Structures are given as structure tokens and as C-alpha cells.
Amino acid sequence: MDGFNGFTQQEYVVLQKLMEKAPYMTIALTYDPNRNTPDRDLFNSTEKTFNKLNEMALEAGVKVEKLQIAHGHMGHKNENKADSVQRETAKTDKEKPNQWYIQYAASQLFAYPYKALSEKQEGVRLLACQTRHSEIEKVGREIINLAREKGYTWRDIAVVTPDIRDYSMHIKRTFASMNIPYFLDEKRSVMNSPLVQYILGLLKFFAYGYRYEDAFRVLKTGLSGIDTESTQILENYALAYGIKRGAWWRPFTKGKEEEVEVAEAIRIQWMDQLEPLKKKILKAKTIKEISEQVYKHMERTDLHERLSDFTATLFEKGLLDQANESAQVWNATLEILDQLVELIGEDEISLKDYIKLLETGFASTEIGIIPPAKDRVLVGNLDRSRSHDIKALFVVGVNDGKLPGVETREAY
């Protein structure tokens, strides 16, 4: 177990049972047992957890093995961390690496009393900006300077922030305008996926009486089998002659003969795809029945193959992030349908309520992607992203309430 500073009473009960039953158990805590360090108060909460776990193990008759993992120069017994840093780096007085200054700052951040550093250093720089946009612009210029003047590769650089949602749009716009290749390490919603838009649009087309907006929500996804030019022709005809509601299922007759002939051929092509679904979807009464009809339509119309072609096109255009997202949406969609069927499949539901339920499922589904290329600047959340060895780290959004974050609890 890792990543915990403490546990609730119920969690302690579970842990004690696990101690008694499991052949072995490993719990990792961020804790400095040295009582002489000036920042020892920082570990008070973890120390209580450490002692509680020891007591539980003794009560359960479980043998305890304590292993202290000291990182670099921080693990010297009975030694102030600042003194430890200075002692370890005394061998290289002429030129101290930037890492030394970062480690020194870390050793004194929560220390009382702290030891101020009097010498000039370049390892840690602070920057104040008026807006987020100007902050990211400054970071972008620094990144380009490191690449041009110091020969850094893009992958040598990372940008992190306490809340990526605050900076995502600024980073996308600024880095794109500066031609900085980057990978944004964030969870992405599937709601804007063409596949999700296709399914929701199609269900609404049937549920709300074949509305014009739902029809073209489906057709404009590019997954209907109707090409872009044909979709534009059909949309122009529908707008010109008020095609809506039941008119989609009747032959087109309005307009010039040549115009009607072209639009009618497109209408037939699309309606032929929807006819089998129409016969079943409006008669379906339960969540399982509706979900099965959605899946059968996806299979019948080769939707998976069309989505794969769309994904391949994104790869060809160099839109690697979008392509990786698209590649995961199919499985995410099937998983949502499976969960609906398994959990509440026999419940009766109207098609309109089923759409609301499905929208909720899609809205709560996020996918993560791996970096599509090696040489990119890594951009991510401070508590989520894990970087490789880097030479330059930019931490943006270091504001009160954000770093460290303030825990907020909802009132009940």
C-alpha cells in the first residue's frame, strides 16, 4: 500500500484483518523518523499512523520489519537536513548543480528555524505574472530559449501545474502558436467523440420525432457512411424545403427534377441504414432491449470499421492526441452499454429517459492516453503526471489555495 498518510477507523479494521490473513503485507509511508530535523512537525500525522500500525501488528502477533529508504543525501542519522546537503556538496564547491539548490529549498521549506541561503543561485527562479496567459507566454519563450541556446530537446522539459484545467486552453493556444510540440497529460472526456455524438444523435432522432438538428448531428460525425459533399447537398435541400419529422421517411418531391433526384438518392442511402433500427428501437421497453438494438445497429453498419478509418486519418494528418483518443472510445462505449445491461438491464424505461441515462454515463467517462511521440514537452498535473529524467521543470499556477491545495468539503 502506498500514497496514504492516515486511515479511518474502518480502514484500520480492514488492515488488521488483512494483517492476520495475508502471508505478507507492505505499507509505505512518507516519514522521517529523525526527531532532530527542524521540519519534523510535517510528519506528525504520518508518525501517528506509523505507531498505530505497529500497535496493530503487535496485537495481531504479526512480525514487523521496518525498512527506511533514504533518498540521496537526505538520510543521514541525527543530522540537520541543511547540514546534510551542505556536507554532501562540499566536494564540489566550485560548481554546484542546480539540483543542489532545489534539494536545499526542499530541506528548508517547512523547517523552523530555517537556514537562509546567502549565496547567489540559478537553480530556482521565481516569476510573477499578471495573467495566466502572460505566464504561459513567458514559459513558452523560456522553453524556446533552452532549446536554441542550451541545446535541450523537447523531452528534457516539463511543465506542471496544481490544476491543469486552469491552464489547458492557454497552453494549447500558446504552444501551438510558438510551434512547441507538447503532450498534455490530462483525462479527456468522450462526450465530443464522433462515435458518442453519432449514438446520442441517432437515439434523439428517433425519440424526438426525426428532428432536423438530430439528423445532421448524426450525418456530420462522418460515421454515417454518407460523405461530406452528400451531407451538404442533403442539408441544403432540407433547409430549402423544410424537410423534418416524418418527411425523412417519404420520397422527396419538392424542387427541380435534377435536385430532387440527387437528394432522394442520398435520403434512400441513409434511410436504408436506419430502417432496421426503426422497427425495433421504438418497440423496445427495457434498458437491455434498447442497448441490444444500439449494439446491433453498430455492427450492422460497420461502425467500428468506420471509426477505425477515422482514427487512421487522424494519424495520417499528424493529429496524434486526437487519434489516440479515438482509438479508445469504441471500448469505452461498449463498456458503458455492458454496465447498463448488467446493472439495470431489466428495468423498463422510455427512449428519452434512456438517452439521459446514457448521456450521464458518457459525461462521467474520461480516458487517458500515452505520449504519442517521444520528443515532446510534457505538460500535466502536479499530482498526476510522472516524468522521465528532465533538465528543466516549470511549475505554473503556484498561487495561494492552489499549492498547497486547500481541501474543501461539501456541507450536508
Unreliable runs: 72-79, 85-94
The largest sheet has its strands arranged as 2-5-1-6
Overall CATH class of the largest domain = Mainly Alpha
- What number is the mean pLDDT? 85
Named at the architecture level, the CATH assignment of the largest domain is: Orthogonal Bundle
Helix share bin: 40-55%
Q: Characterize the biggest β-sheet.
A: 4 strands, parallel
How far is it from the N-terminal to the C-terminal residue, by CA? 31 Å
Number of helices: 14
Order of helices and strands: HHHHHEHEEHHHHHHHHEEE
Radius of gyration: 30 Å
- Class by helix and strand content? mainly alpha
CATH topology of the largest domain: PCRA, domain 4
User: Care to count the β-strands?
Assistant: 6
Number of domains: 3
Characterize the overall form.
Answer: flat
Q: What proportion strand?
A: 5-15%
Give an account of the 3D structure.
Mean pLDDT is 85; it is low at 72-79 and 85-94. This protein is mainly alpha-helical and 412 residues long. It contains 14 helices and 6 strands. The longest helix has 25 residues, at 257-281. The protein has a 4-stranded parallel β-sheet with strand order 2-5-1-6, covered by helices on one side. Strands 3-4 form a two-stranded antiparallel ribbon. 50% of the residues lie in helices and 5% in strands.
Write the layout of secondary structure elements.
Layout: H1 9-21, H2 44-59, H3 81-88, H4 98-108, H5 132-149, E1 157-161, H6 164-177, E2 182-185, E3 188-189, H7 194-207, H8 212-219, H9 228-241, H10 257-281, H11 287-300, H12 303-316, H13 320-344, H14 351-363, E4 366-367, E5 377-381, E6 392-395
Parallel strand pairs: 1-5, 1-6, 2-5
Antiparallel strand pairs: 3-4
Helix pairs in contact: 3-4, 5-6, 7-8, 7-14, 9-10, 10-11, 11-13, 12-13
